[in-house]
């Protein structure tokens, strides 16, 4: 299916044209038919000579209903700009064109109606002058009369050629269906309609209602009044929702693929060239069928930060519109960042403006990663971008330039810590995370580069490791001699003190890697680790703590923390609550 919208001045024959093309009445309300004035969105469709299905979204032309007009044009890929031959270009013609141009809609037709009542060639010439500087410059033009039928066949041919030229939407894209109608049907419940621009919806799918966050299930679907099990964009679709009441759905809300859109109330945007001087401090933002109040903070000549009254589901690269209700001027915007970092400190906004000014339109994933320094793979999906960057332990991606600078910073932090703590020179990873202001310790570990190394949750700098005081080093040597033949018979606390390894000395020796301090008062020589791995590897697998105690010739006081230490080091692994086995090499 393909979908196009009408646009143009009030009473220029848009609805009459749709009736002539489809044989259907697009005006849904009795008041619209009585007054001959389209107030809300209308819908009709037909099969083209090529066999393609084409749906029309008929929008109101009156200035009082411009918000409804934007709701209809927003999600569609092509438009018919309609001008009456007997009246020519009019104020709402210009206003509708400004909206179309702001959205960057490049596909369409110029249709001059009422050719039997005016000079169609003159109307086409006048309209082309107005279109010349817009996104619809050089679109084909057709003159028609919906009363006599003149030109209708030519228009049908032109429409068939138009829809054949439209870019194919991505069937695998995440769904974002802006709701333009919501109602109930007896025996079925809540039904919503909208234009699906891309992606695929299946009966039984679960979608998220934005901005409420409610998960709803698709009970059934219709497209062009036919029941369907699957629909792909671009299409007009009606969805019967399960588990949601009518008062929870309204125009301007959206049904989205869960976990694939950023529900955001803050955006960094670029203004369309030539409109930056028209930007007020407060305005209305239009995207899809949504309209929301925004506060605007200018950043640079062509960039701004928007704060929305409530969140909307957005992607980087989205085209949106700002409309000043007072002047009725519209400004087209490109979304540059859907989760911009907050401003901290003097000059932060100016630095952001300088950065954004260098970005292309739209920016790439590399630009966003460079700005945010690190992102999870899921974050890229929320932004509508492919994941890029260096992998950092699973689902984190980091920017290379940031990683280089922060690795240097981490090295300096580790050196300063070693100098300030000679008896405990290794920097805990958690402390480094806090000093660097990072959300995850895995990011710290991704910054570790030689000569730094991570071991036991601490960052080591071998080149800066201070020597133990001679008294403690001598105590370590005495321990090694005493346990040379029985490395697992850890001395009791009193004996450790006699050897010169009281609690403080044992901690210092452990932190520089001179002994194994398994628990308070449980200290073994370094040779105990490889000897334990060798002995336990010869046991029938799996083995219990009791079997390990017997094989090592030690006590429960020693074997329990020793086995936990071997677990942490990756030598052993638990099988169940009572047994362990050696990990394969």
From TrEMBL:
Principal place where this protein is found?
cytoplasm
Subcellular location per UniProt equals: Cytoplasm
One GO CC term of this entry?
A: cytoplasm
A biological process from GO: selenocysteine incorporation
Keyword annotations: Cytoplasm, Elongation factor, GTP-binding, Nucleotide-binding, Protein biosynthesis
Which residues belong to any copy of the Tr-type G domain?
A: 1-167
Q: Which PROSITE patterns match?
A: G_TR_2 (PS51722)
Q: Where is the signal peptide?
A: none
Q: Which SUPFAM superfamilies match?
A: P-loop containing nucleoside triphosphate hydrolases, Translation proteins, Winged helix' DNA-binding domain
Sample GO molecular function, one term: GTPase activity
Q: Pfam families from the entry?
A: Beta-barrel_SelB, GTP_EFTU, GTP_EFTU_D2, WHD_3rd_SelB
What is the recorded function of this protein according to its Swiss-Prot or TrEMBL entry?
A: Translation factor necessary for the incorporation of selenocysteine into proteins. It probably replaces EF-Tu for the insertion of selenocysteine directed by the UGA codon. SelB binds GTP and GDP.
The molecule here is called: Selenocysteine-specific elongation factor
Query: To which species is this protein native?
Result: Herbidospora galbida
Gene symbol here is selB
């Amino acid at each position: 299916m393909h979908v196009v919208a009408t646009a143009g001045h009030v009473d220029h024959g848009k609805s009459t044209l749709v009736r002539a093309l489809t044989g259907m009445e697009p005006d849904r309300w009795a008041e619209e038919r009585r007054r001959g004035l389209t107030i809300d969105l209308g819908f009709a469709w037909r099969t083209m000579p090529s066999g393609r299905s084409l749906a029309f979204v008929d929008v109101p032309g009156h200035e009082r209903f411009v918000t409804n007009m934007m709701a209809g044009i927003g999600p569609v890929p092509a438009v018919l700009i309609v001008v009456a031959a007997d009246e020519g270009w009019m104020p709402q013609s210009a206003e509708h064109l400004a909206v179309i141009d702001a959205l960057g809609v490049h596909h369409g037709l110029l249709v001059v109606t009422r050719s039997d009542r005016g000079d169609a060639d003159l109307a086409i010439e006048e309209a082309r002058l107005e279109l010349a500087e817009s996104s619809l410059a050089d679109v084909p033009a057709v003159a028609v009369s919906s009363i006599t039928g003149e030109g209708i066949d030519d228009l049908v041919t032109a429409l068939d050629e138009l829809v054949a030229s439209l870019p194919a939407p991505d069937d695998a894209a995440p769904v974002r269906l802006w709701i333009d109608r919501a109602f109930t049907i007896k025996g079925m419940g809540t039904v919503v309609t909208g234009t699906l621009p891309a992606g695929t919806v299946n009966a039984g799918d679960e979608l998220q209602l934005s901005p409420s966050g409610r998960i709803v299930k698709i009970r059934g679907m219709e497209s062009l009044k036919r029941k369907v099990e699957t629909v792909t964009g671009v299409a007009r679709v009606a969805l019967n929702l399960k588990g949601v009441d009518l008062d929870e759905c309204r125009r301007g809300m959206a049904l989205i693929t869960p976990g694939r859109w950023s529900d955001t109330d803050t955006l960094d945007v670029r203004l369309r060239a030539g409109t930056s001087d028209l930007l007020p401090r407060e305005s209305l933002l239009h995207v899809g069928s949504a309209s929301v109040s925004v506060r605007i903070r200018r950043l640079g000549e062509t960039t701004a930060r928007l704060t929305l009254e409530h969140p909307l589901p957005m992607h980087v690269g989205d085209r949106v519109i700002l409309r000043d209700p007072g002047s009725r001027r519209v400004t087209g915007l490109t979304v540059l960042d859907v989760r911009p970092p907050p401003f901290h400190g003097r000059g932060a906004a100016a630095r952001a403006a300088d950065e954004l000014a260098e970005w292309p339109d739209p920016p790439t994933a590399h630009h966003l990663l460079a700005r945010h320094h690190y992102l999870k793979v899921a974050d890229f999906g929320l932004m509508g971008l492919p994941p890029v960057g260096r992998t950092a332990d699973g689902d984190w991606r980091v920017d290379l330039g940031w990683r280089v600078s922060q690795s240097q910073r981490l090295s300096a932090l580790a050196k300063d810590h070693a100098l300030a703590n000679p008896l405990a020179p290794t920097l805990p990873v958690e402390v480094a995370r806090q000093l660097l202001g990072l959300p995850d310790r895995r990011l710290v570990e991704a910054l570790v580069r030689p000569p730094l190394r991570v071991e036991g949750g601490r960052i080591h700098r071998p080149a800066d490791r201070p020597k133990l005081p001679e008294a403690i080093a001598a105590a370590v040597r005495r321990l090694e001699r005493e346990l040379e033949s029985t490395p697992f018979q850890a001395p009791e606390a009193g004996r450790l003190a006699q050897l010169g390894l009281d609690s403080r000395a044992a901690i210092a020796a452990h932190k520089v890697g001179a002994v194994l301090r398994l628990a308070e008062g449980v200290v073994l020589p370094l040779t105990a680790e490889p000897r334990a791995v060798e002995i336990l590897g010869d046991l029938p697998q799996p083995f219990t703590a009791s079997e390990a105690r017997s094989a090592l010739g030690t006590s429960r006081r020693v074997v329990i923390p020793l086995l936990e230490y071997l677990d942490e080091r990756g030598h052993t692994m638990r099988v169940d609550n009572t047994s362990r086995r050696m990990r394969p090499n």
